[in-house]
Design a protein that fits this description.
Helix content: 25-40%
Mean pLDDT: 91
Strand content: 15-25%
Shape: globular
Low-confidence stretches: none
Length: about 210
């Protein structure tokens, strides 16, 4: 499924995204993947199954390829195999062509916080990072905040690709264009879920 999360500012959407991405710990209750609580998973193993695009894009000082593969497991996997996954993620995110137009393509060095590229380019590279190695759970927090129409189209295609491989995408968004492709809609207010169900049924109530 693709689940859209909507609600006013301060409703708790980003906190929910952080907890689902294992970037923050829930004060009560539990988040489970395949029936096992996050706390029962080995953290590195869990990270291989979760892709996360935070609201505040955080690229680091390094190449574009290194940024996309920053969540690659610290295993003996060779650089060629990782490189293939980097390109596959960029293609899925609709970022491959824009990366090739950079001065040194995938080997283009970025400054601190991704300095040297536009916010829209940074968002699509960060989306490729979230899709790296085809995680089963992908959490996207306002993934279209800096995107133009081409970027929105690429984002929709990326979300469709997660659905096609039987993954789960959770999308926090304000723009109607992305909400129109979700299967289910979750509405938050004051830190609570106030509506959840099939998109059309929830929209009818709103």
């Amino acid at each position: 499924d693709v689940v859209g999360v909507i609600g006013p500012s301060g409703a708790g959407k980003t906190t929910l995204a952080r907890v689902l991405a294992n970037a923050a710990v829930a004060r009560s209750g539990a988040v489970r993947l395949d029936g096992a609580r996050y706390s029962d998973w080995d953290e590195e193993a869990l990270a291989q199954h979760i892709g996360y695009l935070p609201q505040r894009i955080e690229l680091f000082d390094g190449t574009v390829a290194e940024n996309i593969a920053s969540f690659a497991p610290k295993s003996a996997e060779d650089s060629e195999a990782i490189g293939e996954k980097v390109v596959a993620a960029a293609i899925q995110a609709g970022a491959h062509d824009l990366i090739l137009r950079l001065p040194r393509g995938y080997e283009t060095e970025l400054g601190p916080s991704g300095a040297g590229i536009s916010p829209g380019q940074a968002q699509r590279i960060a989306l490729a990072r979230a899709l790296f190695n085809e995680p089963c759970l992908v959490i996207l927090d306002e993934p279209n905040s800096h995107l133009d129409q081409d970027g929105e189209t690429a984002l929709a295609s990326a979300i469709e690709s997660v659905r096609a491989r039987k993954g789960v995408a959770i999308v926090i968004a304000h723009r109607a264009g992305i909400i129109s492709i979700v299967d289910k809609l979750l509405v938050m207010r004051d830190g609570r879920i106030v509506e959840y169900g099939p998109r059309q049924a929830v929209l009818a109530k709103l």
